[in-house]
Amino acid sequence: MAFCNKNVPSSSSSSSSSSSNHFPMLGLLSLLLLHPTTTSSPFASAIRVVTIQKPTSDDIPSFREAPAFRNGDSCSSRNIDKIQIVMPVDANYIRGTMAAVLSILQHSTCPENASFHFLSIHLEPEIISLINSTFPYLNYKIYHFHPNRVRGMISKSIRQALDQPLNYARIYLSDILPTDVHRVIYLDSDIIVVDDIAKLWRVDLEDKILAAPEYCHANFTTYFTDTFWSDVNLAKTFEGRRPCYFNTGVMVMDLDGWRKGGYTQKIEEWMVIQKHKRIYQLGSLPPVLLVFAGNIKAVDHRWNQHGLGGDNFEGKCRGLHPGPISLLHWSGKGKPWLRLDARKPCTIDHLWAPYDLYRSSRVALEE
Ligand SMILES: *[C@@H]1O[C@H](CO)[C@@H](O)[C@H](O)[C@H]1NC(C)=O
Ligand SMILES: *[C@@H]1O[C@H](CO)[C@@H](O)[C@H](O)[C@H]1NC(C)=O
Ligand SMILES: *[C@@H]1O[C@H](CO)[C@@H](O)[C@H](O)[C@H]1NC(C)=O
Predict the structure, then answer these.
(1) Pairing of β 140-144 and β 327-329
(2) What residues in the chain have per-residue pLDDT under 70?
(3) What are phi and psi of 94, to 5 degrees?
């Protein structure tokens, strides 16, 4: 999620590529790996060339109205839960958020029982009226996430879009949402759900705070720097658990348990350590891994086919992983709406296109 300079097209990825023209990102990365503590090197500060500006209404596109999705007969039962879904919303990613909401409603047995909680930094009235007009029947609330919450705690990562304050809002849900919201599904804006979200909602968390697909074959070592692994005290962090990578773009969260355990503060402590010693290269993901990896409830991989946006540098096309799919996630640099607009879509982007409600889209859902 990112707000970027109006001089560059409305994409966070293009702002990071504009800086990489001056300092090739791979070169910078190896520089940081060689000197992990020199975060204030002249190179590191020099790549902060893009200023963050509040987008104007010119940047906010227009969308077609989604149909009214109605509950199936089975939804009148007393056992039906209200499904609480949290998503970030901002001017740059609004097209993704709208497509994601449409995909969730369209595949739900009880769409009227889905409740959305949107997180926004600027609370633009244009965005709110856009949600109103696109989804007139949507049950939603929008909350302000103040970037001061994370000011001074964000460390520069390998991709500028990852450094936007709104990316960190997921760590503060226990404070932002009212205390009568006990459990939520957190979803990034660059996802499409192609199954009934109620199946994910009903996961048995057992005694865990988070549920997400786990990837135990991924090399976990690579998510942290040598500084981290070579420090005896830091490396002890994972003692007694088998840490596996998971993606924080799709999580079921027990907010009551999170509040009780004070997990926001535990994650913030890692963000402060990161400020002093460079212990990881990515944005909001590694501090969450430090606290939770190896201690989450694993759900089926079908709930997060991630990485469809390619890697963090080029956003190359990728194929699907084998197996059934309930949720597609364009994490990585490439976003399907940008690649479709540039007429350079990847094959998988055609799976996103039917959910695009953007008005001028030529590949949008037939009305
Ligand atoms: C689900 O939606 C139906 C129809 O709007 C409503 O009658 C019912 O109370 C809702 N259930 C919950 C738990 O929100
Ligand atoms: C959006 O809809 C809500 C609920 O109907 C209403 O209270 C709010 O004023 C609307 N906001 C805008 C900006 O249209
Ligand atoms: C995992 O990555 C680390 C650091 O890059 C490397 O030293 C190690 O050999 C890798 N382990 C495996 C099993 O590939």
Answers:
(1) unpaired
(2) 1-60, 158-159, 360-367
(3) -60, -35
User: Which CATH superfamily includes the segment(s) 12-53+78-355?
Assistant: Spore Coat Polysaccharide Biosynthesis Protein SpsA; Chain A (3.90.550.10)
In this structure, which ligand is nearest to the CA of 71? Answer: 1
Q: Report the pLDDT value the prediction gives residue 214, as an integer from 0 to 100.
A: 96
For 34-65, the pLDDT digits (tens) are 333 333 333 333 333 334 444 454 566 789 99
The protein residue whose alpha carbon is closest to atom 6 in ligand 2 is 132
Could you tell me the two tokens for 72?
Answer: 């199936």
Buried b or exposed e, range 322-336, using 16+ CB within 10 angstroms = eeebbbbbbbbbbbb
**What Rg do the C-alpha atoms of the chain give, in angstroms?**
20
Q: Is the pTM of this model over 0.85?
A: no
- Give the residue among 241, 329, 257 at the shortest CA–CA distance from 289: 241
| pLDDT at res. 12 | 35
Q: What is the pLDDT of residues 217-249, one digit of tens each?
A: 988 889 998 888 999 998 899 999 999 999 999
For the CA atoms of 256, 260, 263, 268, the dihedral, rounded to the nearest 10 degrees, stands at 120
Please give the Cα distance from 227 to 35 (Å, whole number).
Answer: 10
CB atoms < 10 A from the CB of 262, how many? 11
Question: Could you give the residue ranges of the DSSP H alpha helices within 205-248?
Answer: 226-230, 232-235
Q: Which ligand is nearest to the CA of 226?
A: 3
User: What was the pLDDT predicted at 360?
Assistant: 65
Question: Closest Cα to atom 7, ligand 2: which residue?
Answer: 132
Q: Which of 30, 33, 220, 221 for a ligand 3 pocket mutation test, highest count of atoms within 8 Å of Cβ?
A: 221
Ligand 3 contacts (CB < 6 A) are: 219, 221-222
Question: Which pair of tokens denotes residue 316?
Answer: 């190359």
- DSSP β-bridge partners for residue 142: 118
Q: Answer yes or no: is the C-beta of 75 below 6 A from any ligand 1 atom.
A: yes
Is the shortest distance between the CB of 112 and ligand 1 below 6 Å?
A: yes
SS3 126: helix
Whether residue 301 contacts residue 213, with contact meaning beta carbons closer than 8 Å, is answered with yes
Alpha-carbon distances, residue 63 vs 85, 204, 292, 365 (angstroms): 21, 37, 38, 12
pLDDT, one tens digit per residue, over 324-355 is: 999 999 998 899 999 999 999 999 999 999 99
